[in-house]
Amino acid sequence: xxxxxxxxxxxxxxxxxxxxxxxxxxxxxxxxxxxxxxxxxxxxxxxxxxxxxxxxxxxxxxxxxxxxxxxxxxxxxxxxxxxxxxxxxxxxxxxxxxxxxxxxxxxxxxxxxxxxxxxxxxxxxxxxxxxxxxxxxxxxxxxxxxxxxxxxxxxxxxxxxxxxxxxxxxxxxxxxxxxxxxxxxxxxxxxxxxxxxxxxxxxxxxxxxxxxxxxxxxxxxxxxxxxxxxxxxxxxxxxxxxxxxxxxxxxxxxxxxxxxxxxxxxxxxxxxxxxxxxxxxxxxxxxxxxxxxxxxxxxxxxxxxxxxxxxxx
Amino acid sequence: xxxxxxxxxxxxxxxxxxxxxxxxxxxxxxxxxxxxxxxxxxxxxxxxxxxxxxxxxxxxxxxxxxxxxxxxxxxxxxxxxxxxxxxxxxxxxxxxxxxxxxxxxxxxxxxxxxxxxxxxxxxxxxxxxxxxxxxxxxxxxxxxxxxxxxxxxxxxxxxxxxxxxxxxxxxxxxxxxxxxxxxxxxxxxxxxxxxxxxxxxxxxxxxxxxxxxxxxxxxxxxxxxxxxxxxxxxxxxxxxxxxxxxxxxxxxxxxxxxxxxxxxxxxxxxxxxxxxxxxxxxxxxxxxxxxxxxxxxxxxxxxxxxxxxxxxx
Lengths: 313, 313
What we know:
The structure is a homodimer. By secondary structure, chain A is of the alpha/beta class.
């Protein structure tokens, strides 16, 4: 006898991960494919179908009761991805319909970070919390703001774009066309930009100078683990920008916790300690020593897959 | 036969206004007294009792079913005013209990701007809206963020302190001890500080130079109405700071409107047009041309009184 499963899909700027989730929140089968490198969105959908169809056949199409998708700039009201600066496709993409039609499964879609927030609330670090902020530090910076137990979607379904809050007025140019967005500093992409700037401007010795090929957030993490001073300073700087900006967000929703996940958050305390320090330094006194800074309790992209799958139930 | 009435109290840094409100949202009797100039909070409560007791007697104590208070840094969960930088009393003031005991009426308390937001949602410009931001521009800057039809109170009841979001990093010193808070620029106090700075730094002719006594937001409004270039530029500057900061807030809650009230908002389009322009200039593209900038439809402090009274029903 087969159990009913929900397909959770986490679309990121780099990778698209999927998982088939049972009603108890266990991922019984998962996988991923690159989001980039296909011929347009049609090519991506065709390649996604090629990967998924055999798995769906194996699990039994009749057991898959629906698909939930988390994607950058995803709109839960329309099922569209709307002008996502870090995705390979521009404009408005009716992704829920495209995926649903291709797989023959009814699909719904929301913002990837909102999906992750729902995953954390149902199965992760935010279990039992009614007010928290979920921050995803991947290629870009995504967020989900939960207030009074409900995700804030906004009047048009597009709320929660913390990555495009201005962290540095007239700062780095962002993919969105504006300047100084938080995600240009605090994301896997952002910390690499900072590192590249520092390597050019500074002369201090660092393992990072000997890195071959394009510098990555993972290389910075490895260097920091090895005690490299510049790599550690990169986390301090990134944590400062995040802490400063999050202090302003705390003044809006007064959350009991801010939960981080995504590639950059895997640095753990090397990043979380500076965030916590600079958050506290910048908080209005009524909020001091109240906000927990936490790492996601769910492995890798599971929060987003679980959250996306939760759209189905 | 008498109808049941709720006492709504709007406590500000300068004045405390009260109104007795019937179940249809009509204020049947109102008045005010200064918040400052009393001997401590005990003196204020004693003087408030002196003003209110005769009115309560006249309306019939048995008809007053309760009191709702809106106050800066008011906490709906505890009934306390918590470290309000613009109030004459420091520390934590159990205001709901003090007022309730003095008047012999059960009292509840919330943030003044949250109260105003509830008033706007029930009786004013936000009627029928589920996602909006209410901004009060008085002595300080208060705010209420409504998402999905509910006021965002945060885990501790202290959410919605937009006035203490950092608008200018390392900017003007704020009463809260930090630097660059929005309310030091965008409030009746803030626009006067800007004017005083400009009068010292600049040499251009302006009616404001001939103002006798301490400059006020009202004097700036009068000068702007008379076509004074510096006064108009003061609204442009204040609107720029507000528009820039609110663009970041839109990215968090994606509201369908931002509603302004309070003394400074009485300047109307002289202030709202610059806010709208700079908001749009700074918005992420997905939010452009969607957010209405509105003035409160409720006269004077009625929104706050009505909202405070709504805590009772």
